[in-house]
Design brief:
- The chain is an alpha/beta fold.
- It has 2 domains: 82 residues, no CATH class; 173 residues, Rossmann fold, CATH 3.40.50.450.
- It has a 9-stranded mixed sheet with strand order 1-2-6-5-4-3-7-8-9, sandwiched between helices.
- Helix 6 packs across helix 10.
- The longest helix has 16 residues.
- The two termini are 33 Å apart.
């Protein structure tokens, strides 16, 4: 691990200590921006709080940054614990960090992702699927069809492992011999290694579930895929709606919403999504070329 990669981890990960006051994504983004505009600290000395203050920060924040960067022993212990659990980090400055996240999210991309499973799965073309936990029967059939078609056509499926649409699509994809990237909002250590499945977590490998983490990981799900399928949404509320609305607002990736006659599907279409029926999934390759020809 390079010093720069270690720096990202030290600034963004709690390293097993829930009281550790790490930087938020917004704070890390602003720090990176300011540092990019200034000369770097000479390699022959350590960063001081005065160096950070010279970027326009107050003393308290500057000392906090330096204090976080000094906890190398804690970092090494955390990395060893993660390694024993099969969990390894990849930071925004690591060579194997998914380039699509950098391209679509820029400095809002996660400073660090933790992985459990085969990281090579990230190298394959992917589509994403999101949807409600409580699925109507026809919507569940749509989620399963998306997963199956992805597996049969050599595309990786990206989802979030939640009950309902996520797990329905993931299991259908794996059953069809496909690959899955599951971006979870709970501890990576809870999830067993499975063939053709890569678990991802935005925060530490031992971070418990929280609503904030569940909402935050949606941007990773929406940006890792060439396109996003919405199996079912609730108008104006819930994680599926929130993540899809943000995608459409920022234009991360094309959105295809199951045509189920719901108010949510109609509103998403008004926001820029395409409506699609189960029968239209049959010619997956033609569909892909029509929606995002530059990415297939």
């Amino acid at each position: 691990m390079t010093p720069r990669e270690a720096g990202f981890l030290l600034l963004t990960s709690r390293l097993g200590n829930p009281e550790r006051r790490v930087l938020t994504t917004a704070q890390l983004r602003e720090l990176a921006r300011r540092m990019g505009e200034q000369e770097t600290v000479p390699a022959d000395r350590e960063l001081t709080w005065q160096d950070v203050a010279a970027l326009g920060y107050g003393r308290e924040f500057s000392q906090r940054v330096v204090s976080l960067l000094e906890e190398n022993d804690l970092l090494q212990e955390y990395l060893e614990t993660g390694k024993r659990a099969g969990c390894v980090p990849v930071t925004r400055v690591s060579p194997c960090y998914p380039p699509v996240l950098r391209r679509r999210l820029g400095l809002d991309s996660p400073g660090c992702l933790w992985m459990k499973g085969d990281p090579d799965i990230l190298d394959y073309p992917a589509i994403s699927l999101v949807g409600s936990r409580e699925l109507r029967e026809e919507n569940g059939e749509f989620a399963a069809l998306v997963g199956r078609f992805a597996g049969e056509r050599g595309l990786t499926l990206v989802s979030g492992n939640a009950r309902g649409a996520d797990k329905t699509a993931q299991e259908a994809c794996l059953a069809a011999g496909g690959r899955v990237v599951s971006v979870v909002a709970d501890e990576l250590t809870r999830h067993p290694l499975r063939r053709n499945l890569l678990w991802l977590s935005e925060d530490g490998f031992d971070e418990p579930f929280s609503k904030t983490r569940a909402l935050s990981r949606n941007r990773c799900i929406h940006t890792l895929g060439q396109m996003v399928f919405v199996a079912q949404a609730t108008l104006g509320k819930g994680g599926t709606w929130d993540g899809t609305a943000r995608n459409l607002r920022f234009g991360w990736s094309p959105v295809l919403c199951f045509r189920d006659g719901s108010d949510a599907a109609r509103e998403l279409e008004q926001m820029g999504a395409y409506q699609i029926a189960c029968g239209e999934l049959e010619d997956f390759s033609q569909l892909s070329r029509g929606i995002c020809p530059d990415e297939v």
